[in-house]
Design brief:
Organism: Cohaesibacter gelatinilyticus
Helix content: over 70%
Pfam families: Trns_repr_metal
Order of helices and strands: HHH
Number of domains: 1
Protein name: DNA-binding transcriptional regulator, FrmR family
Family: Belongs to the FrmR/RcnR family.
Shape: elongated
Distance between the termini: 26 Å
Number of strands: 0
CATH architecture: Up-down Bundle
Largest sheet: none
GO molecular function: DNA binding; metal ion binding
Number of helices: 3
CATH superfamily: Metal-sensitive repressor, helix protomer
Low-confidence stretches: none
Oligomer: single chain
């Protein structure tokens, strides 16, 4: 799989760092389950992992809106209406992940 760096935004390294932290936290939750920790403690930690992932997703989508969609809708862009239409289609596509 090739990596296209044209979609790399300033917040992506920060998002990747958050997700790596959540990944480590999730590994800890799995260990808690395997060790027989109380369900309340496990649920609390899973909630924290969910929030971390949701925050990363929200930041990623906001970053996409700020950098990709605004650029396609900017009136000074070449291509005019086609870029604006594509920007609207991109926005519709990404909103299903909100």
């Amino acid at each position: 799989m090739s990596h296209d760096h044209s979609h790399l935004h300033p917040n992506h390294p920060k998002i990747a760092k958050r997700l790596k932290r959540a990944q480590g936290h999730l590994r800890h939750v799995i260990d808690m389950i395997e060790q027989g920790n109380p369900c309340h403690d496990i649920a609390q930690q899973l909630f924290a992992v969910e929030r971390a992932i949701a925050n990363a997703k929200r930041t990623l989508i906001q970053d996409h809106i700020d950098h990709c969609l605004e650029a396609s809708l900017h009136p000074g862009n070449e291509g005019g209406g086609d870029d604006a239409r594509q920007g609207i289609e991109d926005f519709k596509a990404i909103t299903k992940y909100l």
